[in-house]
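User: I'm putting together notes for a lab meeting next week and I want to include a structural view of one of the chains we've been expressing. I don't have a solved structure, so I'd like a prediction I can at least talk through. The sequence is below, exactly as it appears in our construct file.
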Amino acid sequence: PSDFDWDVIFKGADWFHFTGITPALGGKLPEICLDACKAAKNLGVKVSCDLNYRKNLWKYGKTASEIMPALVAGCDVIIGNEEDAEKVFGIKPEGFNAETGVIDTAKFEFVAKSLMERFPKATKVAITLRGSVNADHNTWGAVLYDGKNLFASRRYDITDIIDRVGGGDSFGGGLIYGLLNYGDDQKALDFAVASSCLKHTIEGDYNRVTTKEVETLMSGNGSGRVSR
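Assistant: Thanks for the context. Below is the predicted structure for the 228-residue chain, given as structure tokens.
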């Protein structure tokens, strides 16, 4: 029997989100995470996963490639970047070089399609695209694939970066918010990317921005330059 009453935990919930960090910590966490995913699906709760590969955490005898497939198999939405897809599932876009700061979004359609082919229960795959110009200057964007269409965000120039910590989490949170509130994949993606862009200008883990601030950046001028 489970130590958790999932019926109570998920009562009234619309969405369950987890990241690859949780099962990477070992112990009973991979098993608990899988139980949570199955319970959420049985109760009609949407499930999403940020692959979030951290090689220094997988130290307990199991690899991400061994553990993550069973967890991701039940997900409705899969989130990751090019390194996550490669390190966990061996999926890599050809000719990608993050150091140039220039990214061909079409290359990542292959990554998204490959993930969806491997995990057919997924209805959407989001891939974040970071180009590292230097330590203080990154380009940032993402694509979202729904099985038929590839949606691409605009590319932002993030200069004078304050803190990259939480950038991925703020993207995931923004995407979930967008998918729940907009009913439009392009707007949901644009909200997620803008939310994450603003997080780069804030110190600490928490994205202290308002919905209005994110929507203002979404609909702002075409320069794509983030300054706060």
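A couple of points you could mention at the meeting. Confidence is low (pLDDT under 50) at residues 222-228. The radius of gyration is 17 Å.

User: Perfect, that's what I needed.
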